[in-house]
Write the structure tokens for this entry.
Amino acid sequence: MLHTFRKQIRKISMIAATVAMLAACNSAPSTPTGENTSAPSATTASSPSASADKKDKQNIRVQLPFLKQSLDAPLIWAIEKGYFAEEGLNVEYERGFGNADTISKLGTGKYDIGFSDIYNAMEFNDKNPNEKIIAVAMYQNKAPFSIVTFKDKGIKTPADLVGKKLGAPAGDGPRKLFPLFAKEIKIAPDSVTWETMEPKLRETFLLQGKVDAVSGFYTSVIPSLVKGGKTMDDIQIFFYDEYGLDFYGNGILVKSSFAEKNPEAIKSFLKAYFRGMQEVVKDPEAALDLVVATDQSKLMDREAEKLRLKLAIERMYVTPELEAAGFGGVDMKRFEKSVAQTVEGFKLNPVTAADLFTDKFLPPKEQRLVPPASERKQLP
């Protein structure tokens, strides 16, 4: 009887051990995949060899100007297609909270590279002369600065803004530059009144008739208005670059101290990035599909992003200047004028274009040429 009891105990123990082993297997952490919500990464360690390969690469932390959008397609393409990895880089990115915030965090060293505008960086440099930020490339050849209204408002020319109510967040770049715009169109800056709101409410205020027009990036404003029920035929846009403020758009920015310590990493980053840009311009629909597919939130509006990318390619990513000189560079005479205008508009200490931009990290021209029109597909 004792012998039988011992056999039952051994049998029960064996069953318990088996259950424990199965539980351990089921609770083992799975391999991470996809985009990390706090720091979306370029590569994912799906095997020990992949992990080792990732460790061998230099980590580059990037902050976007805002939420991930179709405008970030060159970066996403270069990540997903392995262009950065080929250059020995492991690129990780996080969403931004506006250009000024991206520059501020770049200045603290939280990120290595920021996608933002050099004009806000000028203001940062003016206040933080020991934490200088520079542009190593301009990926938007034209700034998306604009005043947007509806045609039924009767505002047919910028001069018709006199006496009207304009809306924008307090820190909006085009709003801050409005006195210069007013000077160019020969109206008094104080001939309009301003309504201040949160960025997410700007288009709502215009749609609801609380303001007559808004200032902002047309790549942000237009898709939101169309999503709100308007058509392109309903909308009147006054582009700043058509009225004497021929500014560059967002650039690829770094702290000068980072550039001094990591010149090869910057060169490699730009080479891969503009390779991605070339592919986006060749096949924007494939690029759009890739951006939407990598959106972990699954909240991205494909039609809005399609319009945003279409606007960007037509006015910012493909221009006569770029077709002649290639992606990433600047016309220093044109840039010098916009820098002087920003100094005046933001009331900054004088600086020169050479203080803010360097082309020494750019790939050779032949590696960043705009694809010929015959190779460029159109977004349907």
About this structure: Confidence is low (pLDDT under 50) at residues 1-52. The radius of gyration is 25 Å. The beta strands are 58-63, 89-94, 113-117, 133-138, 145-150, 165-168, 193-196, 213-217, 235-239, 250-255.
